[in-house]
Specification:
By secondary structure, this protein is α+β, with helices and mostly antiparallel strands. It has a single domain, classed as Nucleoside Triphosphate Pyrophosphohydrolase. Helices cover 28% and strands 26% of the residues. The chain is built from 4 helices and 8 strands. Strands 1, 2, 3, 4, 5, 6, 7 and 8 form an 8-stranded mixed sheet that branches. The longest helix has 16 residues. The radius of gyration is 15 Å and the shape is globular.
Length: 185
């Protein structure tokens, strides 16, 4: 994926939250400073990643992965690949690979941004500039654990695991986006 495509998606997104607007500007600054490699996992100072908050068909449950490196329940996602045309494509690909579910429906507009330190596949401390999307599984979808997950589990949106950092906020934002009239929790 090119930094131009990533930048275009972020420039087009108009978050209403002031913190998210400021973070969007920081992401755009990072992309401008690293035009050749900001989307590549080989970029040691950090790199863009894409993830998806995957809700079931009714929006009552969220599929989380027990991440082997992080050791916590998190949303599905990961590194951008050269074949991903957009950040949304990367998020959808990662969600389908990690969940084993075909036919996911991804909202093309970002939901949330986050920067977090991590030691990923580089084996060195770095940062992930994560662009988060919301996706919905088709009715009756059955997940399959991939080699990228220790475990996968559907969690009721009102009974999320306790050690999840921003997951409650993400689930609330996702439900608000896809369920008209839904209430933030």
């Amino acid at each position: 994926m090119s930094t131009n495509a990533a930048g275009a998606a972020l420039r087009d997104w108009r978050p209403t939250d002031p913190g998210q607007r400021a973070l969007r500007e920081a992401f755009l600054g990072f992309l401008a400073a690293r035009p050749e490699d900001a989307c590549l996992r080989s970029c040691e100072p950090g790199h863009l990643t894409a993830s998806a908050v995957l809700l079931d068909h009714d929006g009552r449950n969220v599929l989380l992965t027990l991440h082997p490196r992080v050791g916590r329940w998190i949303q599905l996602g990961g590194h951008c690949e050269p074949e991903d045309a957009t950040l949304a494509d990367a998020a959808l690909r990662e969600a389908e690979e990690e969940s084993g579910i075909d036919g996911l429906i991804l909202e093309p507009e970002p939901l949330h941004l986050d920067v977090h330190p991590i030691t990923c596949s580089l084996g060195l401390p770095t940062r992930h500039f994560d662009v988060r999307f919301v996706a919905r599984a088709p009715e009756g979808a059955q997940e399959r654990i991939s080699e990228e997950s220790v475990d996968l589990r559907w969690w009721p949106v009102d009974r999320l695991p306790t050690d999840t950092d921003s997951i409650p906020e993400l689930v609330s934002l996702a439900r608000t986006r896809i369920l008209p009239g839904s209430v933030r929790r």
